[in-house]
Structure formats: structure tokens, C-alpha cells
Amino acid sequence: MEKTRFAVVGAGHGGKAMAAHLALKGFPVKLYNRTLAKIMPIIKLKGIEIEGEITGFGKIDLASDNIAEIIKDTNVIMVCVPAFAHAAIAERCAPHLKDGQIVVLNPGRTCGALEFINILRERGNNSNITVAEAQTFIYASRGMGPASVKIFRIKQAIPVAAIPAVKTDEALDKINEAFPEFISGTSVIETSFNNIGAVFHPAITILNASRIESTMGNFQFYIEGVTPSVAKVLEAVDRERVEVAHMLRCKNVLTALDWLTMAYNVIEDNLFDGIHSNPGYYGIMAPKTTNIRYITEDVPMSLVPIAEFGRAFGVSTVATESLINLANIIFKVDFSKSGRNFTKLGLGGLSLDQIRDVFIDGIPKKK
């Protein structure tokens, strides 16, 4: 039986880890990066050195800045770029994706698969393509050099869901050949709204902006950055996220406390105690600047869609919108326009039931 042929899009920390690991497992792998200079060492070496939890050399069949060459004749395209680049990747892929191919966003953040599909349609690609998203990224990894990467940890039991939802198991049949760690999610509502980073990252960063800038991040991000008052804001953002998910009839949405229990075996009755009882957060230092993905990715790609759904469904998202407004002021941009709003998700003018249909079936049913 012929092995599944993979393409990896993005040669950052995560993309290099995934490409090298796939190659080490014996799968045919091609690697795309928009900047050729960044992957020239990989091209010259014809692969990527991998260390850490896994060691060895992953031979890459082709590394290129030509996305048409990378996508051609591949079964599964693993997109490993920041969520704010998903739209650009969808635009580049649109002319080349064919029937039967599977695109997986690693991870989708909030509504990544929905945005990707909408862009494919806008660009005239109506082929039978499955677009799926992972709830989180499979690796904790770091690039150690131009053609080397270290995998610190491989996560287990990562939900993946596709649009339409009935194609999830079919997509997993292919993906699980290489990654048994991926499991079936009920829908992209689950994978999108169980995005806990949306709760933690922007709020802690914005509410500690002065300390980050005055100390260049010389404090423990979670342990010192989450005071009782900050924790109350986190709890408010978390409640809003969960309420929006419930409106979409997501039965498997986790509260932040649920997630801390599941991921770290922390059992507390509030987020301040939960975060401070988690030994995994001790020693994690704050970023050196506020100009990081905790805001530039998590605000437009996670908080903005949550606020959009809240307004559409009549759910108060005052805490979430406050963080968006503060981020707009700090960065002098309008993340609500640049982020995943209803227009970019193709949801404008749809009813609540029709929006649920899009998440599950990919198209709204006529009412």
C-alpha cells in the first residue's frame, strides 16, 4: 500500500519539526516556505536534523518557494504557519488544490477552517477538498539552526475536525497513518472554541504591558503576571467564550479550569489558584515586548471572532471587546477589520441556525 504523501507549509519552528518527523517516519514529504533563502540550507542538506524527544535526519523530497510544486500529487497538506497567515496561504493554494486533497491547519485557532474554505470559494475553487483544523499544535519545538530542530515534547490526544464534519474520520484515516496522536473532534466548533490561548495570552500580556516594557519581560508570565485582579478578567473572557460556544450547541467546550485539570491535573475552584497551583507555569518568563503573537495572532484570529459571534447571538462579550479595543489602541490598528470578522468567515446575513449549518456542513441550509 502506497504511503500517504504529505506537504508541510511553513518552515518555522513547527513546520520544520513536522516535516522532519514525517520524513523520519518514512513518509514522502515536501516543504514549502514563501522565502526561499530561509530553506536554502534545507535544500542543500536535502533534509532536516532533528533532536530532542526524537533524533535523526529527516530527508525532504522537495523544499521550495513554489507552492504549486509542493501541493502537486500530495494527499495531505499540513499548514504550520501563524493563524494570521492562513488567509494568505489559502489564496496561494486556491489555484492548485484538487479533488480529494486534505488541508489541515495546525492549529486553526478560532474558525481557521471556516476562513480557509471561504477564501477558496472566493477564489473560484469549488473542488472536493477537505479542510480540517487541529485544536492545538502537536509539538513543543524550537528551531536550533537553519536546517535543524529540537522537539521537546509530542502532545497526545489532539482533537481534529473537518468541514464538513462527516469527513473528519475520512481525513483522520490518512493523518493517523503518520500521527496516531490526532483524534476525532465532534466539529470545528469544538476545535475552534476550545482555544484556551485566547483566554490566557492576550489578557495577561495587555494587563502587564507596562511591566513587560519596563523590565523587558523579566518576570514570570503566569505566576507573577496573573494577580487576583488579572485572574478575574481571565475568568470573564473565559465565560464569554464558553457562552458563545454553548449558543453554537458545542457540548464539549472546556472551561479554562476544566482544561487545567485535563492538561495538568490541577484541581481548584478559580483561575488564580488554578494557575498558581500548576507547576508547569513556574519558570515561564514573560515576552520581552508586547509586539508578539499573544496579541498580533490571538486578538484578530481568536478574540475578534468570539466577539463577532457574541454580537450576532446576543451574548455579552464586554471583557473580550475591551481587550480588543486596548490592543487596537496599543498597535494603532483595527483588529476587528483585519481579523476573522463575519465577512471574512462568509457568515454575513446568516441566522444562528444557518451559522451552525456552516460549521457542520460547510454550507448554510435554506430556512
Give structural notes.
The protein has 367 residues and is α/β, with parallel strands linked by helices. It has 2 domains: 6-192, NAD(P)-binding Rossmann-like Domain (Rossmann fold, 3-Layer(aba) Sandwich); 196-333, N-(1-d-carboxylethyl)-l-norvaline Dehydrogenase, domain 2, CATH 1.10.1040.10. It contains 18 helices and 12 strands. The strands form 2 sheets. An 8-stranded mixed sheet has the order 5-2-1-6-7-8-11-12, with helices on both faces. The protein has a 4-stranded mixed sheet with strand order 4-3-10-9. Helix 4 (86-93) packs parallel to helix 5 and helix 14 packs antiparallel against helix 15 (318-331). It is globular, with a radius of gyration of 20 Å. The chain starts with 5 loop residues before the first strand and ends in a 6-residue tail after the last helix. The mean pLDDT is 95.
List the SSEs and their pairings.
Blueprint: E1 6-9, H1 13-24, E2 29-32, H2 36-45, E3 47-52, E4 56-59, E5 62-64, H3 67-71, E6 76-79, H4 86-93, E7 102-105, H5 112-122, E8 130-134, E9 139-145, E10 148-154, E11 158-163, H6 168-175, E12 182-184, H7 188-193, H8 197-207, H9 209-215, H10 228-247, H11 256-264, H12 271-276, H13 293-296, H14 298-313, H15 318-331, H16 335-338, H17 342-345, H18 352-361
Parallel strand pairs: 1-2, 1-6, 2-5, 3-10, 6-7, 7-8, 11-12
Antiparallel strand pairs: 3-4, 8-11, 9-10
Helix pairs in contact: 4-5, 8-10, 8-14, 10-14, 14-15
